[in-house]
Structure formats: structure tokens, C-alpha cells
Write a structure and sequence with these properties.
heterotrimer, A alpha/beta (155), B mainly alpha (259), C alpha/beta (267), B: 259 residues
């Protein structure tokens, strides 16, 4: 059974097409490009409530993505959440009094951490802690506060 | 014959077939080293099983993607979330529709062709003839086809998903006015390389293994008459469909269960 | 010592005994015919000798080796020394005549293509089909297909060939050609041939030794001449082609009168 040249060529093309498709999926469709930040530096922030924040959620400054959430742990002593942020090493000029808050993106939104730069002259380094944090908004609490203040206003 | 008897006979017959199928699989796997040695046989089969399915996959993928674009838009618009169309299209395709639909199409086109081919070889005694010429028909005929199917289906599934996403983009951006940038950036943000794409590839690898196995077994086990081969072809498509959908459920539960 | 020794062969298909204690000897260099009415399992016998089927009882020894005790590899090696001609030829339908005959050479040897080409031409020449080498099996007549299959069966110069119903359904010319070929090849290549057939005239013309099987047993054995003169009822019915005798005309069951009068069958 002779192998026709054309058969081999078309099989080769088929394999290339398949690889191209996989490549396309990997590069253009997935978050592969966001993978290259392994060499970031880590900073911890403590939150009373992280809401729907997950590992790999984005971390932004002025809306620009500068890192991601690496992991979330529960502190057994303070009963708060310790969130470890992995920030790109190119953004190493964050003042030590930078504040971290949890926001929601869009209506169906997933949650992310937004940073606000402070005014100190020293910068955050690997292993530092962000002191100023604001917890996520929990809908029930907001409604409760609203009702409470309404009730007070009526008196 | 009573119902119980019939049930018992059916159960015994089914276990017998399963046993034969399993032994058959072991024989196929045993033939892999010698097939890799004569890779030209495998290449020939990749041509008839993979290359000749590409057109079907391209067209189906394109249409599925376009329909996803349309339907997805109609649903998301109600939430004001039409910018997320890219995410919807890509996740639906990469996680589910790509692997599953391409496997079903593959079973219908390539699987039934394999069954018919092997069944015909059996009924014209070509397999027997080969045995008597001291050529093991499993190693010469069956294993190369198995490897070809196993290799081809993941590629076909990837092509399906890729073309589908492009189809969704065509409809979303070209037809419905979804923002170009939002489509791609949201998709990129939400489609995870490992959790979504890799899992989809794993699914199609599993499907390729099972569907090709079923197709080859049914052909090899067919009753060597024209009616027998016809029934075997039907069985291939039906059993493959069950296997694909059942495995899809199991794999999805395992992979995406705790999301 | 005979090339093939079959002793006490028992083989069942479901409840039916295809072979119920059969002893056979096939001698080297001879054409041995196995004959009998349809359905006596003659093809099954060839498959048993080739190791494709396993007997329920008894032994089959080919060239001193017990076929069914061999390992997979040993069995395949033995098969390389056996040639088999199937009833339909069993040519591989997707490749040409040339490639079919070359198949055993390409699979089992590392010979260069030039040598293979010469060998194939030689084998096809012996069966008279050298100029048909470019044709596809679908383009061949039944008789031609069998001749190609014969060429393929002798490609590796086996020690024996088994012919499964080679004369069935052939026109007189093809039949004559085949008969001639079988005899000639047996002599010129020093082969041992086993012909399974129920075509009396042709088989008697070339066989050196004939076994007559029926009901799972050997009912007669001899040369064409001794068979003609045999006194056994079975043999007479077979040799003379009588419609009724030990092999009944009517399928066994209810008698005709009982059936017409709707009486119950006498079991």
C-alpha cells in the first residue's frame, strides 16, 4: 500500500490546522496573556468581609489591572480574611498607606480589589501589609442601614 | 419465554459483549507499539478519519457559533449584559459544545464509516485471510484506525470551538453591534486556559478514545452479513451517543462541579 | 510421518457436533481431498488446522507441532508456512492485484521493491495473470480472483496449501484452469495440498487421497478408484449423486400424511 504524497500533505495540513485552532484558543480566547506575572511581589491585606472575592480576582489601581488575588485565608485569631495579593513587579511604587477596597464590576459583576494610592514616601515591598482596607458591600447590611437610618429620620 | 428469562438473557448477553469489548480493547492497546513503528498506516487512517471530517466540523462549528451568538445576545440583552456575549460563546463552546458536538458528528461520520469498513472486511473474509497470511489483523488494520481516531478528535474539537467562536464574533460584532473590544477582552478575562480549554481538550481525548473503540468493536463483532453490518453501524452511532453524553455528564461534574 | 495428523477431533457448534471423533492424516507432497455433503463442516476443518478455531477435544499436529498449544507468536510463524485459498479469494479490496500478491512479502520481509516486483511477476505468471497486475479486485471475475488469491497464497513458498471449495460456482473453463493449476503447483513446488470440496469430478481428477465425511465422522477413505468401487451406501449415494439415501431427501420431522391430516407429529 503506497503512501500517496497528497495523503501525507493533507494529513500534515490537518494537524497544523488543529494546532492552529488550539493555539488560537489558548492565545486569543483564554487568559494566557495574564499568566506572565509569576514574578510579582506579594502583599497582604486584611478584610472584615470579602464578599464574593475569589482567588485570581483582579487587583486594580485607578482601574488599571496591576495584579491578582493569589489566595484568601481565614485568620483564626482576628476572624477576618487575610487576602494575599500578587502584584506585577513593574508597579513597585505603591505608597505604604495605600488603601484596598472591594468593588463590584458591572451588574452581573464579579468582585475585584481596587487600590487607592496614599501619600507616604516609602513603597510597599514583598511581604508588606496594606493597613487600610474597606470590606465588600453586603446587600443585606446596606438595606438594613438604610432602613435603620430611615427609621431614625422619622422620629 | 417469561420476561424474567428474557431479562436474564439480555443481561448475560450484554455482559458477554462488554467482556468481548474489553478484551478487544486490550488487544488494540497491545498493538500500539507495532503501529507506531509503521506510522504510515496511522497517517493513512488520520486522512480518512480526520481530514475528511474537517469540512463537516468547519461548517457545523460555524453555524453552532453563529446560533450561540444570536441566542446569547437575545438573552443577555435582557440583563443589559450583551458585552458578555464573548464570554458566553467561548465558554459554551470550549467547555461543552466543542467536545460534545464534534464527538457526536465524528461518531456519525467517521465512526459509522469505520464500523462499515471493518464489518465488510469481516464478511468478505479479508480479516480471516490476513490471519492465515500470518498478519495479525488487529495490529495491521484495527490499531492504526484506533490511533487515528484518538488523535484526530481533539484536533477536530479544537477546530470546532475556534470556528464557533469566530462565528459568534461574526454575528455579535458584524450583525448585532456588540462592541468589538468588549467581546474579546471579556472573553479573555473569563476563559481560563487550564480550567476551560484544557478540560475541553481532555474531554475530547476521552471521547475520541471511547467513540473509536466502539466503532471498531461493533465492526469487528458484526454478524458478517449485509444486514448484520447495517445493524452494527446503527449500534455504533447509538452507543457512541450514549457514551458521549453520559461521559460528558461525569466529566463535567468532576471538572466543573465545584465552581 | 504425515505432515498433518488429526486425532480424535471433536468440535461442537452449539449443540451440534460438527466433528465427532475424526482421525485424519495428510501426507507430504500429496493432494488430499476432504469431501462430503454441504454442511459437514469442511471449512471448519481448515480453520481448525489453521488455528483460527479451537477443538473441543482432540489434537491437530502440523509438521509435528500441536497447533493449539502454540503461543501467539509461534502460531503466526507456523501460518507463514501455510497458504490458504478462501472460497471467495478474500483479496484485500482496496488495493490492486499486484499489491495483494505483494502483501505477504511486504509484511514479512525486508526485500527491496525491485525484488518484490520480480517475485510478484513470477507468481502471477504461474497463474497466468501477470498482465492483470494493475487491476483492482472489483474488476476481476470470480475465477480470476481465485487465481490471484492462489498466487498470493504461494508467495512465501509455503509447505502446504489449503483450498476451501475452489471449484464451487466456476464456469467449466475456469474450473479446468484451476484443476490444472492445483495439480501442477503441487508437483512443481513439492507442496502438500488439502482440497475441501463437494465437486466430485474435479476433485477425483486430481486427488491422491480422499476422505469422505458425513455426520461428524469419516465414513470412507481411499483413492479415487477405491471409492468408485466401494460398497458403502453413503459412498454410493455421494459418488453417484443420488438424491435420496443415507442422506435423506426430506428434512426430518412430521410425515406428509400426518401433516395434511393435521395429526400431531410422532416424536
Amino acid at each position: 500500500m503506497r503512501q500517496k504524497k497528497s495523503t501525507e500533505v493533507t494529513v500534515g495540513l490537518f494537524v497544523m490546522l488543529g494546532l492552529a485552532a488550539l493555539f488560537f484558543l489558548a492565545m486569543k480566547v483564554s487568559n494566557l496573556s495574564a499568566f506572565s506575572d509569576e514574578q510579582g511581589y506579594r502583599v497582604t491585606a486584611e478584610f472584615e468581609n470579602i464578599g464574593g472575592l475569589k482567588a485570581r480576582s483582579p487587583v486594580t489601581l485607578a482601574g488599571v489591572r496591576i495584579g491578582r488575588v493569589e489566595r484568601i485565608e481565614l485568620d483564626p485569631e482576628t476572624y477576618n480574611a487575610n487576602v494575599v495579593l500578587n502584584l506585577y513587579s513593574s508597579f513597585d511604587t505603591l505608597p505604604t498607606d495605600t488603601a484596598a477596597s472591594i468593588y463590584t464590576a458591572g451588574l452581573l459583576g464579579e468582585q475585584y480589589i481596587g487600590l487607592e494610592a496614599g501619600a507616604e514616601e516609602e513603597f510597599l515591598k514583598d511581604g508588606d501589609v496594606i493597613e487600610l482596607t474597606q470590606p465588600a458591600l453586603v446587600l443585606e447590611q446596606v438595606i438594613g442601614q438604610f432602613l435603620f437610618s430611615k427609621a431614625e429620620g422619622d422620629e | 419465554m417469561g420476561t424474567i428469562q428474557r431479562l436474564g438473557q439480555w443481561a448475560i448477553g450484554t455482559s458477554e459483549r462488554l467482556g468481548r469489548g474489553y478484551l478487544f480493547l486490550m488487544a488494540i492497546l497491545a498493538g500500539i507499539p507495532s503501529s507506531l513503528f509503521r506510522f504510515s498506516l496511522v497517517i493513512q487512517q488520520i486522512y480518512s478519519v480526520g481530514v475528511l471530517s474537517v469540512l463537516l466540523i468547519l461548517i457545523s462549528g460555524l453555524f453552532v457559533g453563529m446560533v450561540l451568538g444570536l441566542q446569547g445576545y437575545n438573552t443577555l440583552v435582557g440583563f443589559g449584559a450583551e458585552e458578555s456575549l464573548g464570554v458566553l460563546v467561548s465558554l459554551s463552546l470550549v467547555r461543552e459544545l466543542g467536545p460534545v458536538v464534534s464527538a457526536l458528528l465524528f461518531a456519525g461520520r467517521a465512526g459509522s464509516a469505520l464500523t462499515a469498513e471493518i464489518g465488510l472486511m469481516k464478511s468478505t473474509e479479508q480479516l480471516s485471510g490476513m490471519e492465515m497470511m500470518a498478519v495479525d489483523p488487529i495490529r495491521r488494520v484495527i490499531t492504526p484506525r484506533f490511533l487515528a481516531g484518538f488523535i484526530s478528535l481533539p484536533f477536530l474539537a479544537a477546530i470546532f470551538s475556534a470556528v464557533g467562536i469566530l462565528g459568534g464574533y461574526l454575528v455579535g460584532y458584524g450583525l448585532l453591534g456588540v462592541d468589538d473590544g468588549a467581546f474579546w477582552t471579556q472573553m479573555q478575562a473569563k476563559t481560563d486556559l487550564y480550567n476551560d480549554i484544557l478540560n475541553g481538550v481532555i474531554k475530547s481525548v476521552v471521547f475520541g478514545f471511547v467513540v473509536t473503540w466502539i466503532a471498531l468493536f461493533e465492526g469487528h463483532d458484526a454478524i458478517p452479513t449485509s444486514e448484520g453490518v447495517g445493524r452494527a453501524t446503527t449500534r455504533t452511532v447509538v452507543h457512541s451517543a450514549f457514551a458521549i453524553l453520559g461521559l460528558d455528564f461525569v466529566l463535567t461534574a468532576l471538572m466543573f462541579g465545584d465552581v | 510421518m504425515p505432515l498433518i495428523e488429526i486425532r480424535d477431533l471433536h468440535f461442537y457448534r452449539g449443540d451440534r457436533a460438527i466433528f465427532n471423533g475424526v482421525d485424519l492424516d495428510i501426507y507430504r507432497g500429496k493432494v488430499t481431498a476432504i469431501m462430503g455433503p454441504s454442511g459437514t463442516g469442511k471449512t471448519t476443518l481448515l480453520k481448525l488446522i489453521g488455528g483460527q478455531l479451537v477443538p473441543d477435544q482432540g489434537t491437530i499436529k502440523v509438521d509435528g507441532q500441536d497447533v493449539h498449544r502454540l503461543s501467539h507468536a509461534q502460531l503466526y510463524e507456523l501460518r507463514m508456512r501455510m497458504g490458504m485459498l478462501f472460497q471467495s479469494g478474500a483479496l484485500l479490496t482496496d488495493i490492486s492485484v499486484f499489491d495483494n500478491v505483494a502483501f505477504p512479502l511486504r509484511e514479512h520481509t525486508d526485500l527491496p521493491e525491485s525484488m518484490i516486483s520480480d517475485l510478484v511477476s513470477m507468481k502471477l505468471q504461474a497463474v497466468g495473470l501477470r498482465n492483470a497486475k494493475g487491476l483492482m479486485p472489483a474488476e476481476l471475475s470470480g475465477g480470476m480472483a481465485r487465481r490471484v488469491a492462489l498466487a498470493r497464497a504461494v508467495t512465501l513458498d509455503p509447505m502446504m496449501i489449503m483450498y476451501d471449495e475452489p471449484f464451487t460456482g466456476q464456469d467449466p473453463i475456469s474450473m479446468g484452469t484451476l484443476v490444472n493449476l492445483i495439480k501442477r503447483m503441487n508437483q512443481s513446488m513439492g507442496l502438500t495440498s488439502i482440497v475441501v470440496s463437494h465437486d466430485l469430478e474435479e476433485t477425483m481428477a486430481i486427488a491422491d487421497d480422499i476422505y469422505l465425511l458425513s455426520g461428524g465422522k469419516v465414513i470412507e477413505r481411499g483413492t479415487p478408484d477405491t471409492l468408485q468401487d466401494s460398497s458403502s451406501e453413503w459412498v454410493k449415494q455421494f459418488v453417484d449423486g443420488l438424491p435420496d439415501g443415507p442422506v435423506p431427501f426430506h428434512f426430518p420431522g412430521m410425515s406428509f400424511e400426518d401433516d395434511l391430516l393435521n395429526r400431531k407429529a410422532a416424536k
